[in-house]
Amino acid sequence: MSDNARFPAAGLRRRLASLLYESLLLLGVLAAGFMLPYLIVGLFLKVAPQGWFAWLHIMLLLGLYFVYYWRHGGQTLAMQTWGIRIVDATRDQPPELRRALLRYVLSWPSVLFCGAGLIWAVFDRDGQFLHDRLAGTRVIRIK
Predict the structure, then answer these.
(1) CA angle (66, 20, 26) in 5-degree steps
(2) For residue 102, which phi and psi values (nearest 5 degrees)?
(3) Which residues contact 33 (CB under 8 A, 6 or more apart)?
């Protein structure tokens, strides 16, 4: 039995619902990993970082969050809730580090350019987002 037959591609609605739920969960990640340290540093040291440094901090924090979970089981909490998982497009395993990093980097323009990489899924033969297609990953349904 092929992986595609055992684990079909996750539907667009399921992936978008997971994305919406993920955005809510990221508020907690940002509160703990971004706002709290800046609050402590600001209160005790009376220092505020430059704007570029704050953005770099956010990008690295979110990158650590996503890449860690994609590499260890292929799912974030939102993905677990919606029964989807990220796998390498060629095998039924979580993506290797290089693919997970590439997927993270490519997901930003995919989402920020008016969601063009998400809209791509409507036209893609397998219904995958553009950043998944380019990174060599697949989003599969496991429930």
Answers:
(1) 45
(2) -65, -40
(3) 61, 65
Give the three-class secondary structure for 141. strand
Token code pair at residue 84: 């989807």
Spatial neighbors of 86 by CB under 8 A, at least 6 apart, are 70, 74, 75, 79, 94, 95, 100, 103, 132, 137, 138, 139
pLDDT tens digits, 40-73:
888 888 888 888 999 999 999 999 999 999 999 9
Cα dihedral 113, 17, 95, 80, rounded to 10, equals 160
Structure tokens, 105: 């980097």
**Predicted confidence (pLDDT) per residue in 87-127, tens digit:** 999 988 999 999 999 999 999 999 999 999 999 999 999 89
